[in-house]
User: Fold this.
Amino acid sequence: MDLTPAPTLTLHVNGRPEEFAARPSELLVERLRDGLGLTGTKVGCDTGQCGTCVVRLDGRSVKSCLVLTASAAGSEVTTIEGVSERGGELTGLQEALRQEHGTQCGFCTPGMVMALGELVENTAAGTAPTEPEIREWLTGNLCRCTGYHSVVRGVQRACAAPADPAVTAVPAAEGR
Amino acid sequence: MILTDFDYARAASLEEALTLLAGTDGARVLAGGQSLLPGLRTGAEKARLLIDVRHLAQLRGVGQDGGELRIGALTTLAELAADPLVRAGAPELAAAARANGDPQVRNLGTVGGNLAATERPTDLPVAAIAAGARAELAGPGGTRTAPAEELAASGVPAGEVLTALLVPAAGAAAAFEKTADRATRYPVCAAAVRITPDGPRIAVTGATPRALRLRGVEDRLRGGPYTTTAVLAAFRAEPRELFVPGRGTSAEYLGHLAGVLTARALARAAAHSSA
Ligand SMILES: Cc1cc2nc3c(=O)[nH]c(=O)nc-3n(C[C@H](O)[C@H](O)[C@H](O)COP(=O)(O)OP(=O)(O)OC[C@H]3O[C@@H](n4cnc5c(N)ncnc54)[C@H](O)[C@@H]3O)c2cc1C
Ligand code: FES
Ligand code: FES
Assistant:
């Protein structure tokens, strides 16, 4: 079958317009990792099961292995590289996860941060989601290391004390 | 990475989608892609052209016209689960949408896609049947409606696009129950009920080959009371062939599970019933 030549598409990735040609069957995760070099987004399964490829698409958390690049064209995409407003600094959520040991090997962490970011943003200031709510929100994110308890505590810490200097952004170098 | 190649077209209108669908062999509608893309990835699905309807804003959103909810086919499962009109008028649908997959699947997966997907039993069809909903379908010959039960039986006919789900909004006394497969979140069995002045409407999936309305069970339970004992007896009176063994589940187990889930759903629905 003759396919239409790869059209030129535009994506707004982490606030920057990116123009490129992509074959119609290309998945968003392939564009991000192989095309744009944003390898913070991981691939664990490629079939929507593991959640390590989660990014934000026009604000919503989605699995980038289950989105065609062509269907995302024209949209805003945020990857783990773009979550921090000031490059290199951890967000409150990331710092809270670090303090609660919510990451071990780290393979699931970018997807966790991108998925949980939507939950945290939609939680009213000064309140925290309940443990069952956090666990339900994590249904799509598999972690083989932490056992999730520390991740749950990290989310509660991030929500409960957003103004606490200990959990707001600190330079990455100090944060280690 | 998807190993087969296909063309992609973003439909600018429903009419364009229908024209492309009619004019191309192997053309498939792409909505949220949460079933179709993994299917293409594993080779379970085939397509030569994907017609992307996800951006058609006129097919998205919930409205109420008198006693009927109109749910656009491109409404996402997350939107459906959170919609105040749906939660009040069709709680079994909101609960079925909420029970689906995970937040990321619900952010992209759509009402139309969940009703049209055929690879495995999905959650919305039982809720749509119990609610007495009708599907609105657009095709080359115009627009028609079909009962949700008929859609579950025969699927979306080739060349047609599901445009909306039309749902009677009288359903405070309605509920959905599911036992999810631990790994995939798809239903091992799901049941939805709505108590109407004419008696209960009951639909089951997972335990049965497809989403089915169980009229025999409804007849046996008409007038109530919906005790667990009565509901399980009503299920035991069904022909044994109704329930098909699943992955690691016997027909006997599934028949019992369907009864238990239905009993739970009826108990919750009855608590809100004035019928
Ligand atoms: C990890 C994971 C977990 C999941 N868990 C569940 C679960 O627990 N329960 C459940 O029910 N489902 C589950 N699903 C499936 C998911 O909910 C459905 O795939 C989704 O709702 C389908 O909608 P979609 O818009 O993504 O459809 P698509 O994938 O875009 O399409 C699915 C099918 O429907 C057709 N189609 C789509 N829209 C229309 C339309 N408007 N008119 C005509 N045909 C159309 C397509 O051609 C295709 O054949 C899961 C999926 C994943 C990846
Ligand atoms: S790589 Fe996308 S969900 Fe696993
Ligand atoms: S930290 Fe290793 S997979 Fe989650």
